[in-house]
Design a protein that fits this description.
The protein is α+β, with helices and mostly antiparallel strands. The chain has one domain. The protein is elongated. The protein contains 5 helices and 6 strands; from the N terminus they run αβββαβαββαα.
Length: about 230
C-alpha cells in the first residue's frame, strides 16, 4: 500500500466511521436528555399518589450524563457513557437485514442504570456496592435494545424494528423501579462482618469502609459485559 492509498483510506475512515460515531453520540445525548425529562414526569406522577414525608421520592439532575432517582430505600443512577460502541458480531441484531445492509447501524451509545442503596449516597458511604440493572443501547436512528436483569433482559430485544421514545422510556423506568424495589437487601453472611476495627466502628455513621450492598457476601451472577 502506497502512502497515497493509505492517506485515502484514513481520510475515508475519518469521514465515514468517526463522523458517524459523533452522530451516534449526539443522538445518545439527546435521548438521555429525554430520559431525564421522562424521569421528572414519572416522579411528579408518583408524588401525587404518595406521601413524600414517608416515602423517599425525588430526582437529582447531575448534569449532561447522570441523573439520580431516589425511590424508597433505593437510588437508581442513570448514566450515559461518553463512548460509542459497535454491537459484537455474536449479537443477533447484527444478523438482521437492518444492520447487514448498513453496518453503521450497529454503532450505539449506552445509557446504564445502576441500583444503589439510597443511604449509600446520602451518608457518603463511598465503599458501598451497587449493581447494574440494565443498559440501553441506542443508535443514530433511535433503534435500540436493552440488556438487563429480569424482564428487562428479554422484553426490548427487537433492535431492527423498535425505536426509542418517551412512552417506551416511561414504561422502562417503571419496570426498572419495580425490579430495584423487589431486589431486597439481605443480611450478609456472619463471617463477612464478624470483624471490625476501632476506626471502622467509629465511622459507621459516616464513611465506613465496611461495604454494604444488596447482595454483598452472596454469589451474584455478574453481567456478561463486553462493553467497558
Amino acid at each position: 500500500m502506497s502512502q497515497e492509498e493509505g492517506k485515502k483510506i484514513l481520510i475515508n475512515l475519518l469521514k465515514v466511521k468517526s463522523g458517524h460515531k459523533q452522530k451516534v453520540f449526539k443522538n445518545t445525548k439527546t435521548q438521555f436528555g429525554l430520559f431525564k425529562k421522562v424521569l421528572a414526569e414519572v416522579v411528579d406522577s408518583l408524588d401525587k399518589e404518595l406521601d413524600a414525608s414517608k416515602i423517599r421520592l425525588r430526582l437529582e439532575d447531575k448534569g449532561d450524563s447522570e441523573a439520580h432517582l431516589y425511590i424508597g430505600s433505593d437510588v437508581l443512577v442513570f448514566h450515559m457513557h461518553s463512548n460509542v460502541f459497535r454491537l459484537p458480531n455474536t449479537d443477533f441484531a447484527t444478523q438482521t437485514s437492518y444492520v447487514m445492509n448498513n453496518p453503521l447501524n450497529a454503532y450505539c451509545g449506552i445509557i446504564r442504570v445502576y441500583n444503589f442503596l439510597a443511604d449509600s449516597y446520602e451518608f457518603n458511604r463511598h465503599h458501598d456496592i451497587g449493581y447494574m440493572i440494565c443498559r440501553v443501547l441506542v443508535n443514530s436512528e433511535n433503534h435500540f435494545k436493552v440488556e438487563g436483569k429480569g424482564q428487562l433482559g428479554y422484553i426490548y430485544q427487537n433492535f431492527m424494528n423498535q425505536t426509542l421514545n418517551a412512552d417506551i422510556m416511561r414504561e422502562m423506568i417503571l419496570r426498572i423501579a419495580i425490579y430495584a424495589i423487589d431486589f431486597d437487601l439481605l443480611t450478609p453472611p456472619y463471617q463477612t462482618v464478624s470483624q471490625v476495627s476501632v476506626a471502622e466502628l467509629q465511622t459507621l455513621s459516616s464513611d465506613s469502609k465496611q461495604k454494604t450492598g444488596k447482595r454483598l457476601g452472596f454469589k451474584f451472577q455478574a453481567d456478561n459485559d463486553n462493553f467497558e
